[in-house]
Amino acid sequence: MNLEDNITSIKGIGQKTSDLFHHIGIYKISDLIYTYPRKYVTYEEPVDIASASDGERHAIMAIIVSHPEVKKVRNLTITSVSVRDATGSVRITWFNSPFMKNVFHKGDTFIFVGEIKIKNNMRVMDMPEYYTLEKYKEMTKVWQPVYPLTHGLSNKTFQKAVKGAVEVIQNTEDYLTVEVRNEYELMPRNKALYNMHFPKDEENLVRAIKRMAFDEFLSFLYEMRKIKKENAVIFSTHKVNPDIYEKLTGFINNLPFKLTDAQKRSVNEIYEDMKSDSIMNRLLQGDVGSGKTIVAAAALYVTVISGWQGALMVPTEVLAYQHFNDLKKVFQPYNIAVECLTGATPVKEKRKIYEKLKNHEIDIIIGTHALIQEGVEYHDLGLVITDEQHRFGVRQRKKLSEKGNFPHMLVMSATPIPRTLAIIMYADLDISIIDELPKGRIPIKNCVVGTEYRRTSYNFILSEVKKGHQAYVICPLVEESEVLDAENVIEYAEKMKGYYGDSVRVRYLHGKMSNEEKNEILQEFVNRETDVLVSTTVIEVGINNPNATVMMIENSERFGLAQLHQLRGRVGRGSEQSYCIFINGKKSKESTERLMVLKNSNDGFYIASEDLKLRGPGDFFGIRQSGEFMFKLADIYNHADMLKKAQEVIFKYENIFEDTENKSVPLSIL
Ligand code: ADP
Ligand code: MG
Fold first, then answer.
1. Are 102 and 246 contained in the same domain?
2. Which of 252, 254, 260, 293 for a ligand 1 pocket mutation test, highest count of atoms within 8 Å of Cβ?
3. Is the CA virtual torsion 198, 200, 204, 206 positive or negative?
4. Which among 195-199, 231-235, 422-426, 602-606 has the top mean pLDDT?
5. CB-based contacts of 270: which residues, under 8 Å, 6+ apart?
6. How crowded is residue 627: how many other Cβ atoms within 10 Å of its Cβ?
7. Residue list, ligand 1 pocket, CB within 6 Å
8. Would you say residue 321 lies in a domain?
9. Residue 150: its pLDDT value, please?
10. Residues 453 and 557 in one domain
């Protein structure tokens, strides 16, 4: 058995199970063993029933005090039984599992693990896991992996599959020598991979994660270093003539607002780069709403008046169209031709754009990955920009610049990353930082409230709408889910429509819609033809509608702090007071504590650092993962030590990697 084999070569995985794995992108054994658990749970010592608080997962040790009762309600079979310990009682219920009545007998004692809820003054637990006392005793202190699942694929099946591939894990080669591993206190790769799936204990798990994070950083830095080497000796093929400075000043003075000092500084740094002897490779970093787009526009302007073309690549179509609309306006007075190209552009239209790009009838092209497709050729590409850089791999960035003859490169990011780490992560780039917000911005007012505050929130939104403002409401799900207990966009929008009647125009948006539909809905929102937009997190990156003043986030507890900060960044972009309402759907102490960080600060750096401190045991990956860089588990904050080690190893043992190139250095994440 080896990495490339199909998962069906694992004993016990037949066609049916393998189909389920395909749903989550697992085909080969390598896919399986490099799909890490989402989290790990340990089984705690049972708690007293009386001390179990509402909505938290707990284990209780209880004696069965009633005969199991089976009821049929419509097409649902409900089996329930009462249990108690010395401090209180709980009513336990299973759905569609009538056989449960044969498992439980009055007088037996079991450990039940599940979420305790208080309903009508009674403690209840639905569908708990249950264990005999002996079995449970074995399980406490063991870290159980919890895998990403799909309907029909159970955690048990997943675990069994990985177990079946254990020989491949154990045969994993290590590209680091024993000496290097010892020097940097790194676990062998096969042992680390094994512990990722079957952690012996917490200490081993932590070391395993560190090793895997190290590998991700290492391959990232390795690739980065290669690019840097290639770029090092590039004399500028697009050297800007200082004559244009006056025009650039004119462009800036003509903007409808005054640039902040930080924006001016950034524009100047870009201009200096572009007129120097070597090509620009610059990162423009600034928190959400700091005004990066207009700095990019200034760079594009310099490019176009120097006689070249510019390309701006963004991660989503929605953002592409938005930038396109905004920049068209900015460049309109200058007779500069701007176009937009995405995967959704109709083929006929696409061909026309290709043609025009080649003939230099287009000066600036804005788009998604479509910009780096084969067939796209430029006449003379002088500048490439990537927005929301962390959504792209280093390779994609490179691919875009390869479309030209050594164009200048500007990458933009809102990821709040400390300068020392940024210098490592973006080793190939110089850095400009926008560290102030445009004048006149009023800090967003935040509140963290429970679901009982919804009605008040709706009325508050109504009062803002009456002032001519708009609102976003974020729900985690697209539609109702059988497994997840969270709000969904479709039903939620209906509910809001029902509440408001005709007085408020509500529409919804989610990622499963067609591109045309998404763009239409967003355009309508930006044009103020919609008052309230109920959306999933598709609007997370970059969307700009300064007229929106309320952001209401349902099930805030389900999102990472960094993501919530991004979402909140959609408001507070104009001169009006804006508000963010975090609805906490689960009132556990942890979730409240986490959300309070956001309530108390609008500063991305601070939030990122607090996020770290609040991780619970087992929460090694955090929820941060979503969207930040392209790592599977490495986290620049959490594993800053590994990042530094990886950088040292790269410098010190350069030759190891040259020798083993394409063999065992794990470049899989790039
Ligand atoms: P981000 O850095 O998040 O990409 P944007 O570039 O989208 O931010 O800018 C956010 C909003 O601020 C936009 O509406 C933009 O027009 C506006 N803006 C940018 N710079 C300034 C400024 N110096 N003064 C006033 N408004 C500005
Ligand atoms: Mg932006």
1. no
2. 293
3. positive
4. 195-199
5. 280, 282, 284, 295, 298, 299, 302, 410, 432
6. 18
7. 257-260, 263, 286, 288-294, 414, 438, 544, 546, 573
8. yes
9. 77
10. yes
Predicted confidence at residue 475, as pLDDT, reads 95
Do 33 and 49 sit in the same domain of this protein? no
**628, 561 Cβ separation under 8 angstroms:** no
Q: What range defines the domain where residue 122 resides?
A: 43-142
The model's pLDDT over 84-138, given as tens digits with 9 standing for 90+, comes to 999 999 999 998 888 888 999 999 999 999 999 988 889 999 989 899 998 898 8
Overall domain count for the chain: 4
Residue-wise pLDDT tens digits, 372-412: 888 899 999 999 999 976 667 667 778 888 888 889 999 99
The Cβ of residue 452 has, within 10 Å, a number of other Cβ atoms equal to 8
Ligand number nearest CA of 314 is: 2
Instruction: Give the predicted TM-score (pTM) of the model.
Output: 0.70
**Does residue 512 lie in a domain region?**
yes
Domain membership of residue 302 (yes or no) is yes
Structure tokens at 217: 């950083």
Q: State both tokens at 572.
A: 């507070």
Nearest CA owner, ligand 1 atom 18: 291
- Tell me whether residue 162 is in a domain: yes
Domain of residue 539, CATH code: 3.40.50.300
Residues 107 and 136 both lie in one domain:
yes
Give the per-residue pLDDT at 622: 47
Q: Ligand 1 pocket check: which of 318, 573, 576 to mutate, most ligand atoms within 8 Å of Cβ?
A: 573
- Statement to judge: residues 529 and 596 lie in one domain: yes
